[in-house]
Amino acid sequence: MSRIAYVNGRYVPHQDAAVHIEDRGYQFADGVYEVVAVADSRLVDAGPHLDRLDRSLRELSMKSPMSRAALMVVIREMVRRNKVRNGIVYMQVSRGVAPRDHAFPPDHVKPALVMTAKSVPPAKVAAGVGQGVRVVTTADIRWQRCDIKTVALLPNCLAKQEAKTAEAFEAWQVDGEGFVTEGSSTNAWIVDADGNLVTRHLGEDILPGITRKTIIDLANRKDIAIHERPFTVAEAQEAKEAFITSATSFVTPVIQIDDRTVGNGHPGSVASELRALYRQYIDEECGDPVH
Ligand code: PMP
Fold first, then answer.
1. Which residue puts its alpha carbon closest to atom 9 of ligand 1?
2. Domain with CATH 3.30.470.10 in the chain
3. Where in the chain is the domain with CATH 3.20.10.10?
4. Catalytic residue of the set 149, 164, 213, 222
5. Do residues 66 and 59 touch, judged by C-beta distance below 8 A?
6. Which of 2, 163, 204, 231 has the fewest CB atoms within 10 Å, i.e. is most exposed?
7. Confidence grade of residue 128 (pLDDT, cut at 50, 70, 90)
8. Distance CA 8, CA 25 (A)
9. Is ligand 1 within 6 A of the CB of residue 159?
10. What is the pLDDT of residues 160-205, one digit of tens each?
11. CA 156, CA 141: separation in Å to the nearest integer?
12. What is the pLDDT of residue 122?
């Protein structure tokens, strides 16, 4: 099937989709993005993702490319045109196309919007869920506004490549004091000896994950205690359970951190329960299927 991309107002064949060489996203990583999962044709948490996109734009004094309603029309159209039942919609907004100059372009320059959609087989989303995945740790070398979802992902790419080279699924980034910040593209969690969920508090050093927020809400409903605080690599290695969350991996159990096995080396019951609750949440609370 031929894929379709959306580029600045046009639906075009994916293989022909291109942006201008002076797009500021390309030249300066002067852009922000969002990824919305599609599960059984439902958009997962589209509202909160678009809220976060608005916030990222605001924090960088960028204009919105179109209204929320118009953006939802394009997202749905992309899901339909690409016949996505399970997969993702990727959207990226840059500050636009202008002659190369570090300072912002004049006001009349419009932000650029591109969108892609792709199918990801459910089996791939669930890859590693059965057995759990391994993570490695690496120094967090990113900037001081990791709460903004910018396309400046080079440190994240380096971290993910370290994981790949080590045949691990993810790299957990570690701050100067030895505390885990987050994964290269996921939030990091542990379950402590008393069964409390622990994940780093929000701040400028991590992305406020949408999946993180939904999992907190679902855990609250089940009266599972949550402590939003930093944890060290050693604490994570000795934890009962560990797992990661993101729009693309949902809830994925972690069974090894560097060379240490977590728990009994198998996915833990809390992670498994949260994954099931999240699945149920998608089916029951994420609106009607797009197609
Ligand atoms: N942290 C980082 C650095 C990420 O790139 C992502 C994925 N966008 C996440 C956390 C998870 O966020 P979400 O649950 O919104 O996908």
1. 186
2. 4-123
3. 133-285
4. 149
5. no
6. 2
7. confident
8. 13
9. no
10. 999 999 999 999 999 999 999 999 999 999 999 999 999 999 999 9
11. 9
12. 86
Q: Which CATH architecture has domain 4-123?
A: 2-Layer Sandwich (3.30)
DSSP reduced 3-state for 274 = helix
Classify domain 133-285 by CATH number: 3.20.10.10
- Phi, psi dihedrals of residue 280, rounded to the nearest 5°: -65, -40
Q: Which of 45, 49, 48, 47 is nearest to 33 (CA)?
A: 49
| Residue of 142, 157, 173, 185 to mutate, ligand 1, most atoms within 8 A of C-beta | 185
Residue ID of nearest Cα to ligand 1 atom 5: 185
Query: 182 in ligand 1 pocket by Cβ < 6 Å?
Result: yes
Told to judge if 149 belongs to the known catalytic residues of this protein, a careful annotator would answer yes
d(CA 106, CA 190): 47
Model confidence at 127: pLDDT above 80? no
| pLDDT per residue as tens digits for the range 209-219 | 999 999 999 99
Q: Tell me the whole-structure pTM to 2 decimals.
A: 0.98
Q: Which atom of ligand 1 is nearest to the CA of 247?
A: 16
Q: What is the pLDDT of residue 51?
A: 98
